[in-house]
User: What shape does this take?
Amino acid sequence: MGDQKRLFANREVCDLTFVDYKTKIPFLNLDFANVTTTELTGESVFAYGGKGHPKRVAFSGERGGTLTIETQMQSFKMYQLLTGGDVSKTAKFIKRETLTVSADSTVTLTETPSDSGVVNIFDENDDCGEAKTITVTGQTVTITGSADGDRVIAYYIKDITDKVQKISIKGSSFPKAFTVYGDTVMKSENDEILPYKFIAYKAAPQSNMSLSMTNNGDPGTVTITCDLLVNENEEMLDLILEEDE
Assistant: This one.
């Protein structure tokens, strides 16, 4: 029987394992967070009576909570957990390149446009201004009225098919529910290191996500907030402290 009066403190983040609630298959090992916060919530309502409208009886309910994770390190699997988006290995993106016109009034694109040869060409000194009149054949673009040595800027959409990950987030994309296992340590007044764990039996990630890109200050932080629900056994959260020998 452990000491019920033992006092301990925490100054370490939890490593988290997200397990698909439905399939019971591990989905993400999130061992790179900076902060993990578990908050329990409830609502109290009261019966009142007598002069001065005092509270006489308390009723508790609306038991719930949140698991909040703050991380500067990120992964596409984490994005998938947050969004419920579909993952694929191909993508399309815009290509911008500066080219020199040949004597035959053509330029050769470095890649083949993916969208039926849709290309926009501008003078180098009129970027995104008045588009040139052109004819596109594969990667060759013939520019009306251009002379040998003219410098132009080309815009077109290209296919990315090698070493790429893409998450497609649709209006119908929503995250799954997960069972989350958390693992950290506590330190006691007697300088003991005590393994501390929790189990959130049914955690539903909120769909909110903010991705900040900045060139100064601290690296951007992504915050994941999961609502704590109960499972079919009315279980919501277990807190586990492993005692020293």
